[in-house]
């Protein structure tokens, strides 16, 4: 692990793979950390890609910074991290909130994004009910901590059947959620509640786009990925069977196959 002081915060991050490989920046979702991507880091580095996996501010080993962190803050942090690493342009991908940060990076820093990978994410702005839910959840996490929340949502983060079928995966996901600093999680929830509608900008996306989604995702079902594809007609969509909201963890072989095929064909090969 390395750290960098940038954009008024400190980010912990890992870099794997050859220095001359095509850069791939992978952004974790809430409430996880960079280790969520371990199966992808191993596969991508072996395929010759240079993989950057940061802990977003307030998550993992990156310290908490502020009571509210907007998706624009995360995106600016990551652009600054690319500067720190001397990377002018990267494939940028994320899961769930990480996918929304990817769309935010494309909106704010379009010249830094060579291609987009959106896993189990959605493009619309938060609804009024959703804003209320996220702010109440932030209050709850600050008051109670992460443990109860983690137990409640594990069978939505993973497909319910995978909680028992893949106990090692479930344990890893639970451990990430339980060890997240509730202050960081709360700050991100408050900021994410104010996210913009990304759909108007999607039609202008002219870089390659891969959409990945678990067939049994309870949070952002395949219909959400289909909606993004309607706005980005050239986007490629892969539905991962036997997976929920975290197909990269639940079905890494299938996820990695689609990801590497896309990168080889549309980015490195292009």
TrEMBL record:
Source organism: Streptomyces olivaceiscleroticus
Domain AB hydrolase-1: 23-247
InterPro entries linked: AB_hydrolase_1 (IPR000073), AB_hydrolase_fold (IPR029058), AB_hydrolase_sf (IPR050266), Epox_hydrolase-like (IPR000639)
Protein name, per record: Alpha/beta fold hydrolase
Transcription as UniProt keyword: no
Source superkingdom: Bacteria
Pfam families assigned: Abhydrolase_1 (PF00561)
Keywords of this entry: Hydrolase
A GO MF label: hydrolase activity
């Amino acid at each position: 692990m390395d750290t960098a002081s940038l954009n008024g915060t400190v980010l912990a991050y890992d870099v794997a793979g050859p220095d001359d490989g095509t850069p791939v920046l992978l952004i974790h979702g809430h409430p996880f950390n960079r280790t969520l991507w371990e199966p992808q880091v191993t596969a991508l580095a072996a395929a010759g890609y240079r993989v950057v996996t940061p802990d977003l501010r307030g998550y993992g080993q990156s310290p908490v910074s502020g009571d509210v962190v907007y998706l624009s803050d995360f995106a600016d942090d990551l652009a600054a991290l690319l500067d720190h690493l001397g990377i002018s342009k990267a494939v940028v991908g994320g899961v769930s909130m990480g996918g929304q940060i990817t769309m935010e990076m494309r909106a704010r820093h379009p010249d830094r994004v060579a291609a987009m990978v959106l896993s189990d994410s959605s493009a619309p702005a938060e609804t009024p009910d959703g804003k209320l839910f996220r702010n109440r959840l932030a209050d709850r996490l600050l008051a109670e901590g992460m443990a109860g929340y983690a137990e409640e949502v594990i069978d939505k983060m993973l497909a319910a059947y995978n909680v028992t079928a893949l106990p090692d995966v479930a344990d890893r996901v639970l451990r990430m959620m339980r060890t997240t600093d509730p202050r960081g999680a709360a700050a991100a929830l408050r900021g994410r509640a104010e996210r913009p509608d990304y759909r108007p900008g999607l039609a202008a996306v002219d870089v390659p786009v891969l959409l990945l989604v678990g067939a049994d995702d309870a949070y952002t079902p395949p219909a959400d990925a289909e909606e993004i594809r309607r706005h980005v007609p050239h986007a490629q969509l892969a539905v991962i069977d036997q997976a929920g909201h975290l197909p990269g963890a639940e079905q890494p072989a299938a996820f990695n196959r689609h990801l590497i095929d896309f990168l080889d064909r549309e980015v490195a090969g292009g």
